[in-house]
Write a structure and sequence with these properties.
The chain is an alpha/beta fold and 327 residues long. Helices cover 31% and strands 20% of the residues. Strands 1, 2, 3, 4, 5, 6, 7, 10, 11 and 12 form a ten-stranded mixed beta sheet that branches. The two termini are 16 Å apart.
Length: 327
């Protein structure tokens, strides 16, 4: 790949434990592009491991971009602001996602062939081959009354939720209209007017991004030959503070309502089953002991999302990013 063609940016999603494995897969699949982990504070145990990794691999760097927690959309805004003008392609990946062999090459090839500004890989869940996202249905319909959005993650979900809609192809490269945020290849030049994203959403952020892309007529392509694995388990005591923010139930209720009203979605699936499930899993996995990593505080001077009733979760653009000009 040409110089400044690609940068890999790792974003904090919900926990720390898979981070080193995530980074190593990126290093193994690339030869000369930078690999950057943007975070807002990490435990000492992980920090030491990443320091050793950066000593052995000069292409890898970590950057603490703020001293307070930020949700994934907020961190992605920083990544686009800092790197969007420097690189033709930006691979964004959550730090609990592991890429299979040649996934990056397959996504870049797809972007070149299709001209799409967003490439979505096949997403598997866990260490087995359970499909998390292989969308057989991906459709958005605009009407005078509002927006209808049809999206099913798997063939089984499509048959269950949309029995009267043609399933369409699965397992082949195709244009889609919805994205999952775990891992995406982006072409910043083709995303003018899409960023910045809403920084305070902890769920339905994928739907908000999908509709932003749709109204701007930005093409999304699905590349089944690129495989990424979202590793949900395990969660540890060190993950406690950020995990509870990431899957806060009240924040999820706000996020749902905000996205639904913003886009006037008429067939909105008003459910927080996944968020509730993550909270149940967290309570079962973590014993009620003092946390060994208290994490970063929520900044008191951050701008609160409109109509938010829980001001301890704040966001905005008054962070002070670390220098990144050497990348």
């Amino acid at each position: 790949m040409e110089k400044n063609e690609l940068i890999c940016v790792i974003l904090m999603r919900e926990k720390f434990g898979i981070t080193k494995e995530c980074i190593q897969t990126l290093i193994n699949q690339t030869q000369d592009c930078p690999v950057v982990f943007l975070h807002t504070g990490i435990p000492k145990s992980l920090s030491k491991g990443l320091e050793q990794l950066s000593e052995n691999e000069p292409r890898f760097r970590t950057h603490q971009i703020a001293s307070h927690f930020m949700l994934p959309n907020d961190v992605l805004n920083v990544a686009m602001e800092k790197f969007g003008e420097q690189y033709k392609y930006m691979l964004t990946i959550d730090n609990d996602v592991v890429l299979e062999n040649n996934a990056i090459e397959a996504m870049v090839t797809c972007a070149r062939q299709t001209g799409s500004a967003v490439i979505q890989p096949l997403l598997l869940e866990g260490r087995e081959d359970e499909v998390h996202y292989d969308p057989p249905i991906s459709k958005i319909q605009l009407t005078d009354d509002g927006v209808y959005t049809y999206c099913a993650r798997t063939l089984e979900k499509a048959a269950e939720r949309f029995p009267r809609i043609p399933i369409g192809d699965t397992g082949v490269q195709r244009r889609i209209y919805h994205v999952e945020r775990h891992c995406l290849l982006l072409e910043p030049e083709g995303l003018k007017g899409i960023f910045p994203l809403e920084p305070y959403l902890n769920t339905r952020e994928w739907l908000d991004l999908s509709l932003r892309l749709f109204v701007k007529n930005v093409a999304i392509h699905f590349e089944p030959n690129a495989t990424a694995r979202y590793i949900i388990k395990p969660v540890s005591q060190e993950d406690s503070d950020y995990f509870q923010l990431r899957w806060d139930k009240k924040l999820a209720e706000f996020s749902n309502e905000y996205v639904k009203n913003k886009w006037n979605i008429l067939n909105f699936l008003d459910s927080n089953k996944f968020v509730a499930g993550m909270n149940r899993y967290f309570k079962a996995a973590i014993s009620p002991q003092p946390n060994v990593f208290r994490g970063a505080p929520i900044a008191a001077n951050r701008v609160v999302a409109p109509t938010m009733a829980f001001p301890r979760y704040r966001s905005g653009n008054n962070h002070t990013p670390a220098p990144m000009s050497t990348l």
